[in-house]
Design brief:
Chain lengths: ~150, ~140
Amino acid sequence: MSLQGGLYEYWTAQSGITDLVGTRIFHSMISTAAAETKPYAVYQVISEAPEHHMGAASELVSKRVQVTCYGSTPGSAEAVAEAFRAEMDGYMGGTMGSGGNATTVRSVLLDGGGEGADPPNTGDQQAIYWRRLEYIVWYQRSVPTF
Amino acid sequence: MAVGADDVGTGTTIVFGTSAFEAHLLSLNGSDITRAVVDSTHMGTTGERTKIFGDLFDAGSIECEIAFDPDSQPPIGAAVETITITFPLPSGMSTAANVAGTGAITAWSWGVEIEDKMHATMTVTWDGETGPTWTVSAV
């Protein structure tokens, strides 16, 4: 089970998101060539807070997932971010992904964000605008046994 | 009895059967659920003090934190009604656990601060006439 894989499958099944970025949703990084086509999104887990009880690890865990939406204009980046927000904030009680990526997601809450722009590195490049979203995703996973 | 998976509280609801009061819930805390403890220690007791327990218990109350809507105050003067709290639906189940019984709102307070979300708290007290009865989640 992979939360990241489940999220990717979920996002790429939502037309509100794919209408804007297609499947240009990348885990952790993006190649220079792929970044030529905008808009797109990059996601990563930036922290994890597992739960435990006296007997073992809990099934329940929360991860802070960051989704950064990039566009060639501020409005483009904002539109993608709004699409992710519409499909994520307040989600509860479902399975994201299938097969090995199937993840029992209990709750998704938008917990922060920001925006900015990266200036061009050379004269023939354009600035890129971004909008960052941070979600707390609560989900259940298998418990290690010994 | 098998222990279910740990879960978050997001998705929990409280429904007032007659007044139909609704609010955006932020938290629920059941409190003051008690059973009488009577000290049965006497002059001949040795070692630890002894206790006996009452046959009846107090179902207590529920402290609810809600977003405050000035257009919709908790109906503190309402008649006793059926109140149902439904917990999040566990994965793989078709019906969620709930607790239901008769009671009423017996206290509430509200707070409005500069640059902060308006909030309120209310206390729901079970009257003990009907329930509260716990129903487990089911497949």
